[in-house]
Write a structure and sequence with these properties.
The structure is a single chain. The longest helix is centred in the last third of the chain and has 13 residues. The protein has two domains: about 120 residues; about 160 residues, no CATH class. About 15% of the residues lie in helices and about 30% in strands.
């Protein structure tokens, strides 16, 4: 649905009237501050509410009962909803983009406030792909998401550099993180700037992800060839925890994780996996 004004009752009427509906894409939706979705068939929910002057904007999205839901994709969190509550979605597999623009994020009794973990009592073992756009990014914030999703296999992080970050976070083997030990196979870092905080962030995964197969580190600008060997040394790629891991640094144009227009296509296993646009100077 695009550019519509809709009430919660109207949306529920649409869902109940479409008993085989699998994909719901909401764009520029106005007219209600809260949507509560219950559907026995829906597999994908994608939304970007947009902004319009003097309109009622979506403030809260509740996934009350969605037993088949596999994808929950808030692609424009800066425009809302400010609160997302997932009460029942036992098959949820792909989640993102999550950012600090989401003021409250609830998964059962687990609660994040502006991406900071307040309570981590519920773990969602079904989630395999997670997309984060944290400020910084601060490593401790991302680590708490890893704890919430212990079976995570693929992690996307979009860098938004801030000064004063401290990412010298040490992994405690006596308090292991399940996905780092057993499941996390791919990490994609976008708009990586090569500063000390970003190096420490990437190095944490290189040194601690035991089954990592691939890490893609993408720069938002061109770098000379002699920059890359030094960066590999700083990242300590020779000491990687997974000897099979391929660590790839490439320069390309600045990318947005929401650029892919096929997020609603259920035939695409990972809607955030996009070919790099490449660096015109390197090519």
């Amino acid at each position: 649905m695009e550019n519509v004004t809709i009430s919660e009752d109207a949306l529920q009427s649409i869902l109940s009237g479409c008993p085989v509906l699998e994909s719901l894409e909401l764009k520029n939706t106005f007219g209600t501050a809260r949507l509560c979705i219950s559907s026995q068939t829906i597999k994908s929910i994608c939304f970007c509410t947009g902004w319009r002057k003097e309109s009622v904007l979506l403030q809260e999205l509740v996934i009350a009962d969605a037993p088949c839901l596999e994808r929950l994709l808030p692609l424009g969190p800066q425009f809302g909803p400010a609160t997302i509550r997932v009460i029942s979605a036992p098959k949820l597999k792909i989640l993102g983009v999550l950012s600090k623009d989401i003021s409250e994020l609830h998964f059962g009794t687990t609660f994040f406030q502006k991406m900071i973990a307040v309570s981590l009592t519920t773990k969602m073992h079904s989630v395999r792909i997670l997309v984060l756009e944290p400020a910084g990014p601060y490593l401790d914030i991302v680590v708490n998401f890893l704890k919430c999703f212990p079976c995570l296999e693929r992690l996307y992080v979009n860098f938004q550099s801030e000064t004063g970050m401290d990412n010298s976070w040490k992994y405690d083997p006596l308090d292991p993180i399940e996905c780092l030990e057993l499941h996390l196979k791919e990490v994609v870092l976008k708009n990586y700037d090569g500063t000390r905080p970003s190096i420490d962030f990437a190095k944490f995964f290189i040194l601690n992800a035991k089954v990592l197969k691939e890490m893609k580190i993408k720069l938002p600008y061109h770098r000379m060839k002699n920059w890359f060997p030094k960066q590999h040394r700083l990242l300590r790629t020779e000491n990687r925890a997974s000897r099979d891991a391929r660590i790839e640094l490439t320069c390309c144009i600045s990318e947005n994780l929401t650029d892919n227009m096929h997020t609603h296509d259920l035939s695409i296993a990972d809607p955030f996996e996009m070919p790099s646009k490449g660096c015109f100077r390197c090519s």
